[in-house]
From TrEMBL:
Pfam families, alphabetized: DUF308
Name assigned to this protein: DUF308 domain-containing protein
Keywords: Membrane, Transmembrane, Transmembrane helix
InterPro entries: DUF308_memb
Keyword Cell inner membrane: no
Residue spans crossing the bilayer: 24-46, 52-72, 84-105, 111-131, 143-165, 171-191
Length: 198
């Protein structure tokens, strides 16, 4: 019976590792496409201008995608409604999308402020999730770093939102760094998975 439990636990961990790795790679692809679209549509805009329609749509889609990704993680891990941190993160993403819909009809500075507050809070949540998951899944150090950087970037966006030279192109850099750390994390999970199979 002990052997069966151990095998089941190993299988569950392997499935979680594989699922997280796949999800992280999907997030990398999404972020890179999003960055390319933001750079090509928003690089020249400053805070006194309103975001273009395409830029507005992209700014609303980003937090909504994070909600979808969090929902996928919850289903994969089987935590469901017991995952309060995940629920909080999804509520934050939905609230940010709603706030962004209002912000994009104002100035780019306002949109940058909303994005910055979301990046700060979601980064803090990512830190909590990565620290908790480190005990069960492991290989979470890239997500710890990414979460910490997101907190700092969010604070920076919020601070620069009042500047006359603020630009939406700065959020492209944020997403690109996020893609990098998701890629590093996917690689770390692959290495851990191979070690467990030996």
């Amino acid at each position: 019976m002990t052997q069966t439990s151990a095998t089941s636990s190993t299988t569950t961990t392997t499935t979680t590792l594989s699922g997280l790795r796949s999800l992280y790679l999907i997030r990398v692809a999404f972020s890179l496409i999003w960055v390319a679209l933001v750079v090509t549509t928003s690089a020249s805009l400053v805070s006194t201008d309103r975001p273009t329609v395409i830029a507005a749509v992209l700014l609303v889609i980003y937090p909504l995608w994070d909600v979808i990704a969090t929902l996928l993680e919850r289903r994969m891990s089987g935590t469901g409604s017991t995952d309060r941190v995940g629920t909080t993160n999804m509520a934050l993403g939905l609230a940010t999308a709603a706030g962004m819909i209002n912000a994009v009809f104002s100035t780019i500075g306002t949109a940058l402020l909303v994005f910055g507050i979301w990046a700060l809070l979601s980064g803090a949540i990512q830190l909590v999730v990565a620290i908790r998951r480190r005990r069960t899944v492991g290989a979470q150090w890239p997500m710890v770093i990414s979460g910490g950087l997101s907190v700092l970037a969010g604070a920076s966006f919020a601070a620069m939102s009042a500047s006359a030279t603020s630009s939406l192109s700065t959020v492209a850099g944020y997403s690109a760094f996020g893609a990098f750390w998701f890629l590093v994390s996917a690689t770390a999970l692959s290495i851990r998975s191979r070690r467990e199979k030996r």
